[in-house]
Design brief:
Blueprint: H1 3-15, H2 27-33, H3 45-49, H4 64-71, H5 82-103, H6 107-119, E1 135-138, E2 150-153, E3 158-160
Antiparallel strand pairs: 1-2, 2-3
């Protein structure tokens, strides 16, 4: 993954003043590197495109098909007005979160999350006797957007606010 390309895309999007600002070419990269989404990992495109993995998600997500097209970078640039694009973007974020929740309990997803955990991407425990032990993100509830993510230290068995 090229962090520079994603960072440049985010900077271009934020600094653009016209209404036809160029959106990032790779939506998943943009989303996972955006501030506040550091606990997500990249979901393999094959997983996203497999209809079995998306079972019943269309019932929970408004603008499901357009959101899926946005996630897989198949949504035409000029197909939507700014207001419609914002609605689809919201739906795409919600849909990606639901897909991610399913993905991280697969073998490939667990491997990616383990790598992030070992690198300390989720943070390190602030307690002295934990010796900078890596933290693990945990959800207090299964209902999306109800409570924020917490961080768990397996050494002291405490939960922290990020």
């Amino acid at each position: 993954m090229c962090r520079t390309r994603v960072r440049d895309c985010i900077v271009n999007e934020l600094s653009s003043t016209d209404s036809d600002s160029e959106y990032c070419k790779y939506w998943v990269e943009w989303f996972t590197y955006a501030e506040g989404n550091e606990y997500f990992c990249d979901v393999d495109e094959e997983y996203i495109l497999d209809r079995f993995n998306l079972t019943n998600l269309s019932n929970d997500v408004p603008n499901y098909l357009q959101a899926l097209e946005m996630i897989t970078d198949r949504l035409p640039e000029k197909a939507l007005s700014n207001e419609e694009r914002e609605q689809v973007e919201r739906s795409a974020r919600y849909l990606y979160g639901l897909i991610h929740a399913r993905y991280i309990i697969t073998t490939q997803g667990l491997k990616k999350m383990l790598d992030k955990f070992k690198r300390g991407d989720f943070g390190r425990c602030p307690r002295v006797y934990c010796h900078q032990n890596p933290l693990l993100p945990v959800g207090i509830t299964d209902v999306p957007s109800q409570k924020g993510v917490k961080l768990y230290c397996c050494r002291c068995e405490d939960i922290y606010n990020p």
